[in-house]
Amino acid sequence: MVDIANDTLVTLNDASKLLGRRVAASTWWRWERKGVRGHRLTLIRVGGRVMVSVESLQAFLAATNSPDGAAPTPRTNRQRQAAIARAEAECEAAGI
Known about the structure:
Elements: E1 9-11, H1 12-19, H2 25-33, E2 43-46, E3 49-53, H3 54-65, H4 77-94
Antiparallel strand pairs: 1-3, 2-3
């Protein structure tokens, strides 16, 4: 949650400058909508402008770059098929 009384709000263009490189608009939206490794960036709308708090951006970057925030290892096809078989067996046993 953004505290507009205490947080420093910047436009997405200014936030890109803080990061030292241009960040595409689609990237900002993806970070807000889907997130990265289970963490979402909070964007706010002030009038017609989309802004981010510097504190939220720092927290988002810290969370997505921390060792414990690492992306989970993707399942193999064999693991996925085994999970499907277990779920089907549970449904069958429950009469679903």
